[in-house]
Design brief:
Elements: E1 19-24, E2 30-36, E3 43-47, H1 58-64, E4 69-73, H2 89-103, E5 110-115, H3 117-124, H4 129-134, E6 135-141, H5 148-151, H6 161-171, H7 182-192, H8 199-210, H9 214-225, H10 230-234, E7 240-245, H11 253-262, E8 266-272, H12 279-282, H13 284-298, H14 300-313
Parallel strand pairs: 3-4, 3-5, 5-6, 6-7, 7-8
Antiparallel strand pairs: 1-2, 2-4
Helix pairs in contact: 1-13, 2-3, 7-8
Length: 314
Amino acid sequence: MSRLLHVADGPYAPPVPAHELTVTAADGARIHVEVHGPENAPAVVLAHGWCCSTAFWAAQIRELAADHRVIAYDQRGHGRSPANPAYGTEPLADDVEAVLEATLAPGERAVIAGHSMGGMTLMAAATRPAVREHAAAVLLCSTGSARLVASATVVPMRAGRVRTWLTRRILGSRAPLGPVTPLARRILKYGTMGPGSGPHMVDACARIVHACPSRVRHGWSQVLDLLDLDHGVRELRMPVEIVVGTADRLTPPVHARALAAALPDCVGLTELPGLGHMTPVEAPDLVTGKIRALAATYISSARGERAVLAEESA
């Protein structure tokens, strides 16, 4: 019955950041940001999904911070970022742009990973100058660009108007989630995780999701219901890799395949058998490895090229 905002120990307990800051977005929204790892290491930026927080990335932060500067932020209204009356894809783009400008030096490149609504954030911000300047590569985990409610399989029935109507009512509910109970864990596991997810994974996700205020959960559900970011996918011109679980009920693999077909530079699509929507928690080592490999390929190589050019011009 605990109302802890996240688990307190184990692999999904959030590490203590090296430092924290508050970033102000274009419309005045205040965004909580955490920075982990060595100051001059290759940079990684993490954008979490609907109803989550920086705690969602705990496993990735713990591993990557050994040799990367890891920047994680709370989407507006989530975690320690105060709620704001502005809901929409443009505010999401404003927020990630503000975070990149505040935490990265001019010209500094980073790998940006987005899960679910975090991936949609990157699609919404694809044409923003800060994204074009700073994104060396992108990892999209368990996300989609449009038609989310109609394709979701949370309701176990044939696709169509009735299923879409029921799904809309469930995902858009204003009801508070209440304390984390055994029943609450079972419901969350069914809707968001694969059948093989361990109890420690389910508990970590349940505590994070249940900590999201019901008004924030409802407000962003309306944005996701009407989402249409197909144009943003085509503007993600940096190398992009995709990860999805085959048992994802919220953003099924049909979305990942559509993204892979539409992206200008898709460098990989990995479908994980039996995994659900919470891939960074369900497959922490694989997701961390994807981020690390993207950084090694697209940040380290860029640094090497700059060093060679500097020597040649000296």
